[in-house]
Amino acid sequence: MMDKKTKICVKLLRSLVSDVQGAPYPGEDIQSELYTIWYEHAQRAAVECFEFLDANYPQDKKALNKSLNKSIEKIVE
Question: Looking at residues 63-69, what average pLDDT do you find?
Answer without folding.
Answer: 74
